[in-house]
Amino acid sequence: MSPCMIKYCTFSLQSLVVLAVFSLAFSHSADNHCGSPIVSTCKECLRRGPECAWCFNKRFLDGAHISQRCDTAARHILKGCGEKFIENPGIKVEVNATQSSSQVAPKEISIQLRPGSEVSFIVEVQQLELYPVDLYYLVDVSASMQDNLDRLKNIGVSLSHRMREYSSDFRVGFGSFVDKPVSPYIDVHPSKIVNPCSDYEVNCRPAHGFTHVLPVTENMTEFKRVIQQQRISGNMDTPEGGFDAMLQAAVCQKDIGWRPEAKHLLLIMTDQPSHLALDSKLAGIVVPHDGRCHLEDGTYSQSANMEHPTIAQLAEKLLENNIYSIFAVDYMQYKWYEELINFIPGSYLGQLLPKAPNLVNLVVDAYRKFLSDVEVEVGVKDREASRFWFNVSAICPNGSTAAGNARCANVQPGQKVFFNITVGMRTCPVEELQKESEPEILMMVKPVGFNESVTVRIQQACGCHCGETGSCHDDPEPYCVPRAYLMSDKTFIDSCHDERSGLVCSGRGTCMCGACVCDHSNLGSVYGKFCEKDDFSCPYDGGLVCGGHGQCVSGKCTCQAGWTGESCGCPVSPESCMSADGLVCSGNGQCVCGKCVCDDQLHSGKFCEKCPTCSNSCQSHWSCVDCHLSKGLVLESTQQCNRSCTSLVVYVDEITVLIKGKYCLYHRRDQCIFRFHVDLDTLQISRRAECMSILRHFKTFLSIFLLTVVLGLGILAVVRLLLRGKNRSWKEMSNKTDSDSKVMSYAPTASEKTITYRRDRLPEHPMEMHVHIPKMPLHDIFP
Asked: Which CATH architecture has domain 92-128+379-460?
């Protein structure tokens, strides 16, 4: 083997190793991406990416977590799932070649997309050599346009002759506009409504939003006659109602006379900008424009009722009706329209010279540019736009290609332009809207100004054909049965019928192969043989369904052993009601749902142990107890005392059988305390008493008094010593101050005021001078 061959083999081996490493890395990455533990259904699996697939074989990886059913198709085959058991919708592009067209091909394309996937296809656009042309003059007839209107009366025939070089079938129409005929756009004085130019002794026509005068026609004599009859009008503000007129000219196809096979040119002649949407709120008009035709007898009937259209709305209607827009404007407004045409596809801007001598050349140049520029617009309905993305690259006749460029310039008649269009789907519809979503999404690929387009039908692979649980038959091998059969076969449906609810799968699932596949809910999980169980539709207790002590079955809690109640929040055992004395609810209530319910309103508390008003029963027997303790149990006294008693009175050595807190204390005047208790019809009085004699009380009082006196005298002595020391300190400080201070030679009386003047002769010998001024009596100042 030559060295060269050895080198080649070494290189090839290294290359294979590198490719193997990359292949393993890609497989591992995809495995991690698809096989997430949170994936539990086929639908969730497919939504994770175009490389993810679901294995529906029932015997696949028995005992493994359900998320293992989601992986790449290649990994599934390696793990033993046959190819026919793998749910893996492919990415498809199908071209309908049965429909032919002369300018745009193909006419219809069907594609299938999955979340995260994309497809590309080619659209061909060809310019024909000679098109029929419909030109509609839309002229601003406000007073400032008088010279341009006069010029238009003379150039209609000239323009028709020039356009024959580019079209053998040329037709023209005419319409005019001014502004909305309401205040503050026009003067609403009665005389000004009839003749806006009455101040200038000129007979003007009334202001109008848009008036359609002449449908497109090849009769140039009729066109010239109509132009000769036109008169100017007038309004008050600078902007005009051009957008209102443009939209009506675009959407009122039958009135204008637009031919389906012709190129549509809309020539807007004006010397002012147009009112924009929301401007009409100045006139109290707040209804948005509906984008429809509202011509009645050639007049726009909703001018005073609807707002001006938005720029986006106007651009959409012009594109939808295959209309090129030519703006022939005064030089002073050129900049305003230069920014506008960036938002309107298929538009051209030309500067109109004074008295419009260049109008014919302006229209011809615009049409030549429209023919030489080929551009496409791509889009779907606004509701679905956020879920898809598009990219267009034009392949021009000269061979140039620019990514993201949807336009070719200088295209000659007969040449073809190819557009490479890529469509991608970001996500499927959200769960709540998926049932309402259309089975297919329509996308339009429309060459600007062409009367032909391409319809792209997008199928969304967001569901699974074989369901979530697997296949129906296992003999000889499991295989997938069509969903329609699974849902209609009576044998299968009977096994999914829930006798308790009387519904198939409790009305919350689909019968697939004789087993219920439960619906998914944002509220929680639905499960059970008949989808009869869930974790959200039953009563809650403590923030948990069925209190965490049962299962929710058909909307009712099935409690675990030891629990009861509507929400399984009640323990069956009375242990939670046992008070400290070992009795249930202190003997004053019943244990209901693990809580004490007291027998009467007198008792309260967690264990019915509280009774704030129970002392009243003690007070009711005090007179009886006092009588018997003072007179004894002799017969006569007993009869006398029993008049104030309601029960038999007996003496007992000690009340030991009583429950704590249920006997009464009687305080006799000799400071003896007796206990008594009412037991049914017997008033029991304890013979033993806790007594405190008067002498004992006196000794205690005397001891406290003497202790208080001694402490008071001691405190006074300490305070006196402290005050004496403080006075001595003040006296010493006073003496020292007097010796150091100057001796006052004079002390003024109460009726005099002292003023001191000081002059420093020398730093060490200051001189002071005192002047005594007697105070002036108040009656001398205020007589």
From this structure: Sandwich (2.60)
Would you put residue 618 in left (φ > 0), alpha (ψ -120 to 50) or beta?
alpha
Per-residue pLDDT reduced to its tens digit, 200-235: 778 888 999 999 999 999 998 899 899 888 888 988
Region 170-179 average pLDDT: 94
Alpha carbon distance 160, 363 (integer Å)? 11
Instruction: Choose the weakest-confidence range: 311-315, 616-620, 711-715.
Output: 616-620
Instruction: Report the pLDDT value the prediction gives residue 764, as an integer from 0 to 100.
Output: 47
Structure token pair of residue 653:
């050595």
Q: Which CATH architecture has domain 628-690?
A: Irregular (4.10)
Q: What is the SS3 assignment for 591?
A: strand
> Phi, psi at residue 287, to the nearest 5°?
-80, 120
Comparing CA positions, the residue from 114, 171, 762 lying closest to residue 459 is 114
Residue among 406, 405, 445, 440 at smallest CA distance from 425: 440
CATH class of residue range 133-372? alpha beta
Q: Where are the domains of the chain?
A: 16-87, 92-128+379-460, 133-372, 628-690
Which residues lie closer than 8 Å to 721 by C-beta, 6 or more apart? none
Q: What CA–CA distance (Å, rounded) separates 41 from 66?
A: 8
> What is the third-level CATH fold of 16-87?
ligand-binding face of the semaphorins, domain 2 (3.30.1680)
Pairing relationship of beta strands 550-553 and 544-545 according to DSSP bridges: unpaired
Cis peptide preceding 184, ω within 30 of 0: yes
